[in-house]
Structures are given as C-alpha cells and as structure tokens.
Amino acid sequence: MSDEQKADMPAQAGVPAKFEKLVGEIEKMPVVELAELVKVLENKFGVSAAAPVAVVAGNGAAAPAEEKTSFNIELKDVGTQKIEVIKVVRDVTAKGLKESKDLVDAAVAGTVQMIKEDVKKEEADEIVKKFVAAGAKVEIK
User: Which domain holds residue 112?
Assistant: First the structure.
C-alpha cells in the first residue's frame, strides 16, 4: 500500500477518508434497509454480496438482529507466569498490587475471575492479547 493510500485511512476503522461519510450513513441504517440496499446494489451492478445480510422473520415482519456491543472478560487460567499476569491485571483494571494479586490467586485456586465488564469489542480483543502474551487464558463473554 502506498503512503498516499495509508494517509487516507484512519488507523482504527480502516475506512478511507473519502468513504467515511458514506460508511457513517450506512452504519445508521436499520438492518431491513441495509438488506434492501444490498439487493438494489446487486441488481444495479449485477454482483452478489459475499456475506448476505440475514433478516430474522417474526410475526410476519422482519426484525433487526441484535448485535452485542459490550463484553465481559473473565480470567480462566493463570498459567506459569503468575507475576506477568498480575502486572497485566494491574494495567487493565487499575487496581493496586494486593487487589491484583488476590484476583490472580483466586484464579489459580480455580475460581473464574471477572477482569473487566462492559467493554467494547476492540478493547476486549486488546485485553485478551495482553493476557495471552502473559501466558494466561481468558474468555470474552
């Protein structure tokens, strides 16, 4: 990718600047309208959508599917690098050393521990990467 193309793309979204307004409008559309838009574009350009939009039917009318927007992260297993896991817990939760150590000790004893609640998908993925790098096993729920 050339430097010029990279400059047009925001770091987080991966959407070129020239399409930001269009993508923003599409994000605001209900699922039913998105399905209709996909059909119009398929007919207009003679193409097929790679990932068709699923519409859930209920009571004879289409209902938008709910997408989960907040996630909880649970510590399942600490692994062999307990000190590294304690450091990650402190970093992610902003808890003190004692509270972080107690949480990790409880996980070592076999009790699943809630690390963080109601986080966005991107943040949850970053947290999971940190724990995996420290040798722990976590689960996003």
Answer: 71-140
Asked if 124 contacts 69 with a C-beta cutoff of 8 angstroms, the reply is no
The answer to whether 19 and 13 are in contact (CB under 8 A) is no
CA distances in angstroms from 16 to 20, 24, 51, 76, 120, listed in the order given:
7, 12, 21, 38, 22
Euclidean distance between CA atoms 73 and 140, whole angstroms: 5
pLDDT tens-digit readout, 64-123: 556 777 888 888 888 888 899 999 999 988 889 999 899 889 888 888 888 888 888 888
Per-residue pLDDT of 7-37, as tens digits, reads 444 444 578 888 888 888 888 888 788 778 8
CA 135 centroid distance within chain: 21
**77 and 58 belong to one structural domain:** no
82 plus 136 within the same structural domain? yes
pTM for this predicted structure: 0.51
